[in-house]
Specification:
iron-sulfur, binds FE2/S2 (inorganic) cluster, DNA polymerase, domain 1, Ubiquitin-like (UB roll), 2Fe-2S-bd_dom_sf
């Protein structure tokens, strides 16, 4: 089946098997291997990407379901997403890094969709679908807090321009 999917701002028209998963489309068809496959059963969140601005687990979405939709992956150069990536580096929110692309995409989403300030409970609740076997989550929570600060500062600068 022919699909037309916009990924990180670029349109891709490809002929795919109807059973192809979105994560396989991203990794195998487009070479965007930043999106990881951890469990393949919707449990770990390593494959998290944005579809039309909302997080989805791309091992649970078929490529044909993404037809005519817009996907954002960890490779995106969106300045706000880059600020979240920087926060994970600064706060050491990763060890092996396997869960990290999915964690960052989910963190970006939870910050962008928060109503008001975010607290630790909100972060934990919104990261519950993303598993990390290394960090113990403390530095991940700190990374999200740092990212929220950075995004708020960026927003204040943009408003004052
Ligand atoms: S690989 Fe998709 S949730 Fe684990
Ligand atoms: S940093 Fe290794 S699984 Fe999260």
């Amino acid at each position: 089946m022919m699909v037309n999917i916009k990924v990180n701002g670029k349109e891709y028209k490809k002929d795919v098997e109807p059973r192809m998963l979105l994560v396989s489309f991203l990794r195998d068809e487009l070479g965007l291997t930043g999106t990881h496959i951890g469990c393949d059963t919707t449990n770990c969140g390593a494959c998290t990407v944005l579809m039309d601005g909302k997080t989805v687990k791309s091992c649970t979405v078929l490529a044909v379901q993404a037809n005519n939709h817009e996907i954002t992956t960890i490779e995106s150069n969106d300045p706000d997403l880059n600020a979240v990536k920087d926060s994970y580096v600064e706060e050491e929110g990763l060890q092996c890094g396997f869960c990290t692309p999915g964690m960052i995409m989910q963190s970006y989403y939870l910050i962008k969709n928060a109503e008001g300030d975010i607290d630790e409970d909100y972060i934990k609740k919104n990261l519950r679908g993303n598993l990390c076997r290394c960090t113990g989550y403390r530095t991940i929570i700190d990374s999200v807090k740092k990212a929220e600060e950075k995004l708020r500062q960026r927003e204040e600068i943009n408003v004052s321009k």
